[in-house]
Please model this.
Amino acid sequence: MATLDSIAISRQQLDGDKMIVNFGPSHPTTHGTLHIVMELEGEIITKATPQIGYLHRGVEKLGENLTYNQFVPLTDRLNYCSSIMNNVGYALAVEKLLGIQDPPRSRVIRVLVSELARVADHIICLGINAVDLGAFTAFLYLFRQRETVYDLFEMSAGQRLHTSFTRVGGLFRDLPEGFYPLCERFLVECPEAIDELEKLLTKNPIWHDRTKGVGAMSAADAVSWGYTGPCLRACGLGHDLRVAQPYLDYDQYDFDIPVGTTGDVFDRYLVRVEEMRQCLRIIRQALDKLKELGPGPVIVDDYKIALPPKEKVYTRMESLIHHFKLIMHGMEMPVGEVYSATEAANGELGYYIVSDGGKNPYRIHVRPPCLPIFNSFDSKVRGRLIADAVSELGAMNVIAGELDR
Amino acid sequence: MAEMDLNDAVMTTRLDAVVNWARKNSLWPMPFGTACCAIEFMSVMASKYDLSRFGAEAMRFSPRQSDMMLVLGTVTNKMAPVLRTIYAQMAEPKWVISVGVCASSGGMYRTYATLQGIDRVVPVDVYVPGCPPRPESMIYGVMKLQEKIEKESLSMRKDHIRRFYESMDRQRGIERDKGLTEQQAVREMVLDAADHNLATIY
Amino acid sequence: MILERIDEQLPGALLDRHDFRGDVTAVVAKDRYLETVDLAFKEGFQQLMDLTAVDWPERDLDGRLVRFDVVLHLLNLATQARLRLKVRLAEHEALPSITGRFHSADWAEREVFDLFGISFDGHPNLSRLLTWEDFPGHALRKDFPLDGGDPFCMADSTAPYTH
Model:
């Protein structure tokens, strides 16, 4: 880059021993477009300056020109490893703005697919973290489970990765019949796969050497840096929005929050593995709840917010008019601002929506969980080796889609 | 005796055919993964849809050691000069597959920050549409590239690659003369080409 | 509650308040910004979740054009209470930086500088974050076009519902 010096060190300070190396933005650790300018003295990092923005697509500005439901596909592509959680978070934010709540069946299904997506996200994080450090087998074993999750998503939403499953007021359709047997099969196969992963890595001395002690941080520092999610819990603070500020009836589910001690890469690995097991517990309870609830609506009844079903649109006049008004003129939104946060796989995913009453949001801002986490990269790897930077970056689970929006 | 034994072991063909056969069956990909399509690419490389059946197992993230650059995901204006540099570093023969709609045309991101298709800045051989494309689509894209390679001829001039290197020289000239960063230089070249009704800057 | 505490200790610091949909929000006077944030920190709001801005290009307050709203979201981990603080700024006004208090303000303030052009005094490295160094303009301002001047974007054809 033309002005590398201005962000690294000045010419006078550049003595013969220091070397400036670009780690990225195109690099093998498949994390996408992260760029870190490292000042090295031999193999020791003396300063690491992350440069972001290589995937800044202008989502927030685009959101100002789209209606509330049209923004849903854009939310998919924020944290693309667990797209449904972004959809759910956004739908909750708009429903908070409107002051409505989705029907009970939709709440349970949202919890179910969110937890499936959380398992999928942790699979990618752990798989890629292992691949970076040379352990390719873990990735292959885990991805088999991710394929099952893809099959489940494809069955319910029509798309493997970017589901756009939620609408304002609920979901766009109910889960199909074939979902339940496949989900039951997943609940049997996934714990076995997680056991295999643990057999490969948890007691592995090479894994311990590469990950123990790397990137440790105290809980107080983590709070100051804005950490949330597994990275904060690994530092010893058991803060999880599902328990602390429950949404979608999470207080009615029985699950535990794994908490680490030192916050290093190994702790984060253990926290994520245990979280996957807890997700499977929640999915089991959600499936049972769905059976208990029986069939029911999955979107609110209010046709000023949700589209009426097609049979009504074709046979009744008022439904036709509601459909027309919703598509052409958008929903009637109150004037105001809301901030709504959910516990996404990486931490607190927040949506700040400012509405001026029009059909498009006036301002929509996404609070990505990994922005503050990546911000602290320098303080974590200073004085350590380049190899530690690789394990640290993998364990932070920085997804460029939500980092740069 | 020696002549009768050799008859089964010797085959005659054209040089083009055998070179193209070797090239198409050993395409070493360089995944230029930026966004969600890279996740689908991970699925392609995993065991269910296996790309190594096509000779593409050796994923070399170094442009110097690969033949085929797969651009996976949105390329923003900030990333465009990086893409050009990586493409310039690849040794010939080289091909580019643009995977996903973001790389092919900008996708749903019609904004100030997104490059509306990588074919504006690098030559592209195959486009694979989809958001993200299913792994089968990506494999089909690689197969289409193999068909394209089959039809190449060794004496064919790679005009687009020569023009690409000329555009890299022009880009460096603009950076030097106007004192711009590489992103702003590429951005100006792109907008300039649009003003002159040209689709590409090379 | 936190707003009562702020009123007790710093009378006159809060210009306006509401709690639409349960979000406790207060508008802080620009010259009382640092002390209000400090007081909130001492009262337990020790995590800065987010710092962003909203552009109201034609907002007129008492004859002045006050275009920007800088918005902070704070979380109290002990009581799980949230607080939103807003500061109104005119176009070339700057706010003091709170990176000394919250490390997470570092990139959040840089992002606001990049996308809105609001400066933060005392920030260790106030440079662009998401766009490139010599990007012309500030992207999220309402007068910046969505396509940034690129005719290939055909922005008009994909946003048929713009006002």
Remarks:
- The CA atoms of residues 69 and 157 of chain C lie 30 Å apart.
- Residues 105-116 of chain C form the longest helix (12 residues).
- The first strand of chain C starts at residue 14 and ends at 18.
